[in-house]
Amino acid sequence: MAGGRAGPGQDERRVVGSDGGETANSYHVDSYSEEPAMRGYDVDGVTGPQEGKAKGSGGISELNRLVEALHGFDEGGLDHMDSYLGSDEEGLCGSGGMRGLASFNALGLDDMRDDVGLLDGGKRGKRGGYARSEAESYGYASEMNPKLKGKKVPLLEERCEEEFCAAPFNQDAAEAGTAEAAEPPTVWPQQPFRRGWRFNWPGVVLMALYCLAFIFYLYIRIRYTLDLGAYVWWGAFVLGVEILGATSTVLYGVNIILTPVHEPLVDDPANPGLTKVSNSYHVRVLVPCYKEDLEIVAKTIQAAYNARLPDNCSRTIYLCDDGKDKRKRKWCEQMGPEIIYVSGRTRASGEMNGKSANLNNSLGQIYPAGVRIPPTELACIFDADQVANPDFFLKTLPLFDAGDDVGMVLSPQCFHNIDAHADIFNHGNVQFWEYAQVGYDAIGFISCTGTNFLTRSCAFAAAGWSPTYTLTEDYALGMELKKRHWQCRYVNEYLAVGEAPEQVRNCFQQRSRWAKGHFQMILSNQHCPLFQRELPWWERVMYCTGVWSYLVGAVTTPVFIAVPLVTIWAGIFPIVVSWWAAVGLTTYFVAQYAVLNYVRQFKHVTPLWFANVANNILWWTFVKACWRAAGSMMADRGITFKTTMKGAGRLMNANIGDLWMPTICLLGLFASLGFGLFKVVTGPTVVTTLSISLVWLIYTAIPPYLLLHYHFVGRGQTLRWACRICFWISSLCGIAAIILLWLVYPKQYDYGQVLSYSHTFYDAERLGQVPANGSVPWRAPSLLYERGPARLGFGANLTGGWEAGGMAGTLKLTMPTAFTVAMLAWGLLEFPEGYARAGQMARAHDNLRWGADYLMKTISRPVAGGSRYQDFYIAYQVGNYTLERATWQRPEDMHTRRPVYYVATKNGTSDLVGQMVGALVSTALVFQETDAPYYDRLMTQALSLYGAGMRKRGKYSDVFLYDCAPQDPAAILVDPVTLACRPPDQQFQGSMVYWYNSTSYRDDLAWAASWMYKATGDQAYLADAYSYWTQHVNMEGDFDLRYLVDWDNIIYPTTVLLAQLTDDKAFHTGAQSYFQKWLCSSGNTISYTPLGRAYNRFNPALGQTMNAAMLAVIYGGAIAPQNATQLEVAPRYNDGSKSQKYICFARKQSRYMLGDKTGASYVVGFGPHFPQRPADRGASCPAQPENCTTVNGLYNPAPNPRVLTGALVMDPRTWDYFEDNRASNDTWVSVELNAGFTSVMAGMNQVTGTYDQCLQGYGILARDVNICG
């Protein structure tokens, strides 16, 4: 009988030993299966798992939502479930993910909500009869089984019997008297399976390299790194643990050497859409359960029922219910003869594995002892929550045709409720399913996993059915089959979907059970794989790999946690750090990382990382499992079978016993990290070993942190981000450890020489009548005929100044020039000793005067208006950008009269005025003691300009004009040529206001007022500074979140200056907030390259970094204890620790610019390796009289014929790479980019201390509590 039901005249629900009541059962929870069941989904809202409702409590309606959700996948919807089921980017259930699962169109659950009463026996008091209506008659039974449509379905009569058995598979044959004798075939196997495989050459190469690297590493470690004196024992012990870990790597690496070759599936030509099989298989699908809700089990059974079969195959489904649930029984009996309800077994005394006993009870009834089982009989096992894909059998059954000795076909598991980006328990186990199992398939090794597999029933019977002597019956079943020479096939395709445990308690219990089961086996004299003579030695070893991985995790993880702790607390490092150690460790680390992270698909990188995280989370579980398994074996005690929770039961709270060890580890690691930082900062120590240990601590702290985050914070978006961040942190920690091994003692730099070079760059960028004996011999007078329109009150000429550089080329721009002059002047005021030690004071004064003189030329004579304040015209640009960007020539060869672009202060130019006032006043303070007339001139001009800026407030870029200047008589005398005026075609064309537009102006006014207060001490200016600073923060503060410092963003220099002037807490807080972002890496705004260069994502130029460094060294000096109280009546705010950190930040970034990390300087002319092709017209053009063009200048691949000494290139990259290409903006140079850099060099030449102190504190600086909070 195909369905296995009882024959005529027999009651299929016969009693087999009822005791009159429900048999006692000592299971602790409601399932045997390894994973929990699926939850419902809200299709309408696409919100994922239903919150606030335990699984199973949603009843039938929740299941209907799941069915609708599964339907949605055929239409490309519900992407939220694809995180683990296979998105295009990182899904884990095959390339198509959940969309790869065929439609569940015939699950037949739509009417379940209406038939709950029917399942409970109909109306109260009703004990039998027929359905009163067509709806009752058909119900979901007819929807489930089309064979029942149009037929009366009798309501079930209440019965007291609770034992229900499965009919023998040969029931019909036995009744006809044709039962076969239990005689085995004379020759077996008649058609043996021939396994196909090929070498996976990338895996072969990686494993070969790893083995060579490991041998080399052992040689290095033994010969060069164990000379530890009295502590050689510690080094030898750690080396032994490293060797232990290496064995696990080798055992895993074996699996990536070979790849199986499967025969292609063949379509059945007579039945399109179905695969062809040679034999007519009858599949007995067994679904063991205990107390899962009906809708959970029904979903699994219906999926198995609706899964398509090859045309010549059949199936019977058995619900093996140890919970004796009446509703499940009635539901099964309404489904038709293909669904058999089996229940009523009595649990044996001392029974260890309830799932195996439940299965064996059913299998023993289906296949009576002594009856030969045909090879076409197959058993398929699904856990209660495993929903099969409709093509499950089409993909698995044909593999049995490959040979009579194919005893098992496996498929991997995936789970709908696991986020691939936050799978800290490694439920997805991609390393096992996609790599280990593939390798096992290639070498013919069986590693059964408990669900979603099929076996030949005769093979299953030969193995003694499902093993009951261990907690891990699947692992044991594979070994039992292999002992009897059965072969296994593996389908590397996700063909069923289940649910993984989510609660920490459930996860630990599940992994503890797995580990204890493996330890049970290895510690058993009877079942230890090493003692199984039927297995060849290599298979005995392979069957020990599972327990070996648990043992390795239980030993190596705590030891590697202890190593950095011992280094910090006891000062003992397990190796002698040397060049040989760096070579050996680098070689071995890279080789091991390549093997353990070898992937065939890029999306597997993160899941493989989670495998490592899970091992580090679960090490204490492995230790306890080993201890308890050993104790039970020695004391002859049984181990309680604690099953994974299903349904509402999975919501149990985590026990403190699960989290106390990870919590202690995390707290201990953090405490050690703090102590290590303290030792680095406060005293001389071995920098290399301690710094490596601090990086090691961070890496080791990630797994326990993620576990506690998972339990206490949440498992949603915050965990995803935490995992992503921790993934990158762990990767960077590995890189950082290698870098630190290669780190040499820092060299010393001559900051005075660099300061001199930087001022040489300003000499090279001058325009106008340059001195004949200047420091740059290849520069000559240029553009001597520039002047503003006399009708507007401009002076005799607009010669002088600097070319702006960068994309502006030879244009002269007032806004960047004012910023440059102010930064240079501020540096001179703050670091006079640095300039004096370098012998650059005179050159600095000369360059500063050159810039300030030009700024005063850009201001017209006052415009009469009769108002309280005077108005002016200000020339903000000289030169046509549209024309000049199309040419590439020396400034000395430019004879075209350039237009002047100007604005009127009466139209609102507060931003431009503020910058210019700050530049003029700061320059005046530099010359206050040495050149009083010049000081007075600067202050007079600044005072008038300040009033004009206050009269009409606004941004200069909102309204602008241009004018074609008349010919300058002086130019005719010097260079008598015919000049042509080429005004722009349109008002906007030619002006760079598009790129040099201003986003705010109140910060510029606060900047100007602050300098006016510093110069005069007038409280009115201080009141203005307070007012505009506050207005800017409240009205324009959004721009400050970019943390930029340049001609357009002056609020942070203003804040630092006001903190110096007032010692107000608000300004100190604002300044330190800015430094916190730069020192602590804000992520979205401030980041660090692998070699430690800080950069701003909004403007990653090196000049931007040096502007931040300039503020850091100025503010760090201001809050240093010796400066904060010097000559002060009342104590000022001071913080020595922060002062050192800020100055160290400036040191670190300065050294980076000079080539400390990259080996090449970013300053032209400094060091043996520096940029050869800075984008500067004068430096890149060939020597006169040869003409300069874009061909022989801009696009000439050769280095510049002249060295632009002292220029800091732009290099706007976010990684440690420099493209020395003149046509790339990497090589742009400009006066504004050098401004902060110049002052930092002066500061480094003045401040006390050494870089050694910074090196001891840096590396973990971003985690400094004092700075980063």
UniProtKB/TrEMBL annotation:
Q: What class of enzyme is it?
A: hydrolase
| Membrane-crossing residue ranges in chain numbering | 199-220, 232-254, 547-572, 578-599, 659-678, 690-713, 725-745
**Reaction catalysis annotation:** Endohydrolysis of (1->4)-beta-D-glucosidic linkages in cellulose, lichenin and cereal beta-D-glucans
Pfam families this protein is in?
A: Glyco_hydro_9, Glyco_tranf_2_3
Q: Where in the cell is it found?
A: Membrane
Query: Ribosomal protein: present as a keyword of the record?
Result: no
Q: Which GO terms describe its cellular component?
A: membrane
- Give GO terms: molecular function aspect only: cellulase activity; glycosyltransferase activity
The EC number(s) this enzyme carries: 3.2.1.4
Name this protein carries in UniProt? cellulase
Organism (species): Elliptochloris bilobata
Lineage in the entry? Eukaryota, Viridiplantae, Chlorophyta, core chlorophytes, Trebouxiophyceae
